[in-house]
Amino acid sequence: MNKKSGKKVLMLCTGGTIGMLPIDRGDPSSPLHPATWEEIQEYCPALTELSFDVDTKEMDLIDSSDMHPDYWVEIATEINTYYNEYDGFLVLHGTDTMAYTATALSFLLDNLSKPVIVTGSQIPLAKARTDASQNLVTALMIAASDGVPVVPEVCVLFNNLLIRGNRSRKVSSYGFNGFISPNFKPLGEVGEYIKIDTKLIRKPTGDGLVIYGTLNRNVLLIDIFPGVVPALLKNAFAIEGLKGVILRTYGAGNVPNDEDLLEEIRKAVAKDITVVTISQCQEGMVELGLYESSMGLVKNGVISGTDMTPEAALVKMMFLLGLELDNETVKSLMQTNLRGEQSLNVFNFIYDNSKTENNTKRLDSKQVPAGLKKEKIHKAIIRFDGLVSVNGKNKEELRKLAIFMGFPNANKDTSTDIPQCLGIIEKPASNMGFILDCTDEVSRLINPALPVQISIVSLNEADVKWKGIVFSIYTDVE
Fold first, then answer.
1. Tell me, what's the pLDDT at 427?
2. Is residue 17 annotated as a catalytic residue, yes or no?
3. Among 17, 97, 119, 309, which one carries the catalytic annotation?
4. pLDDT per position as a tens digit, 173-230
5. What is the mean pLDDT of the segment spanning 355-362?
6. What is the 3-class SS of the chain, one letter each residue?
């Protein structure tokens, strides 16, 4: 046996295929029972060669289909209780809800400085072709930081991939490559060597572990599909106590242009139900307003879930609602990276001009959110909705508009040389929706200490009106 390094890992057993063995060793078809560490070592001799100690703790052993938020809190509590005694933690888990559990632990355990690895298997340990042995040994080595860099995150280890927990998705009910990490590279790959991409690992703050203990279950996940009946959403939004809804929409966040459908969403948002949209696509992200078919969501108060997985979006909403924050804070944080669960932060400044009878060239000021960091700006987009001429003249009146951040100098309000000019729109059309990329200008002009105000000037002095503007700023995450 290898000389022990003095490191220790605590293995928490919650059930699942990987932690079960036949009662009768001579009869592989006999009923399964929770295995002791000694029994597991018998079936997996490689464990006796580990250079660190492993202690086990049996929790309530359940089929992972029965996993629930209260159990997530129990697992987090156990890790917190023994946090100072061990170098890392391993959670044995069934595969069906493993991504949900890993995601939940990533939110419940803040400021991690030690690995928390979740693993399972498709085939029981006692079977000849099992994947349990490899997953178990590798997960333990990463949890102990044995020969590999410390990974102070909640991760899923499955087959040859180490995946950030809140980026993981189960994609096969039988394949050894059962989990993937859409929209984000795996943190590590396993072959002859365990290779960790240290550039991707979140850095510990050094502030000490913080554990949260409340999750709000009053949430729903709803798919939009062709022919969806608005009454279905109406009934869902009417559920007593409902606090949040994740809408899985098409592509970049598109929905049918159905006024009744959008009206039900508007009513839900008006009742302080947080509605977030994520994409049904495995890859890519929601970009509200990119297409006309998503403007209805923007105008009715739906916010972007960027590229979060369904598991991450749903559990993150449970977590934020459990903190009993006000609705606006929940909306803001749903669009802000907290644990590496999304690739970009989104800050939306929504200006609604649809109920204004008079023309206006300057829209109300919007305060910059505290988390918006100027130096992190990735891109900035202004989306107009329903721009029209109201002076009775022809479409050519709309041929050129200047967009400013703040109100331009009164003596030069048609000059595009003003430093605050975000860009020029040249497109003769009425009822026009358009997108202006103003990334470079916003990166230069934005000031987190000052509010944002948008001004629109027609360079040929046409009278114009618009229904609304969405000014979206995307920032890189830490």
1. 60
2. yes
3. 17
4. 988 899 999 999 999 999 999 999 999 999 988 889 999 999 999 999 999 999 999 9
5. 69
6. CCCCCCCEEEEEECCCHHHEEECCCCCCCCCEEECCHHHHHHHCHHHHHCCCEEEEEECCCCCHHHCCHHHHHHHHHHHHHCHHHCCEEEEECCCCCHHHHHHHHHHHEECCCCCEEEECCCCCCCCCCCCHHHHHHHHHHHHHCCCCCCCCCEEEEECCEEEEHHHCEECCCCCCCCEECCCCCCCEEECCCEEECCCCCCCCCCCCCEECCCCCCCEEEEECCCCCCHHHHHHHHCCCCCCEEEEEEECCCECCCCHHHHHHHHHHHHCCCEEEEEECCCCCCCCCCCCHHHHHHHHCCCEECCCCCHHHHHHHHHHHHHCCCCHHHHHHHHCCCCCCCCCEEEEEEEEECCCCCCCCCECCCECCCCCCCHHHEEEEEEEEEEEEECCCCCHHHHCCEEEEECCCCHHHCCCCCCCCEEEEECCCCCCEEEEEECHHHHHHHCCCCCCECEEEEECCCCCEECCEEEEEEEEECC
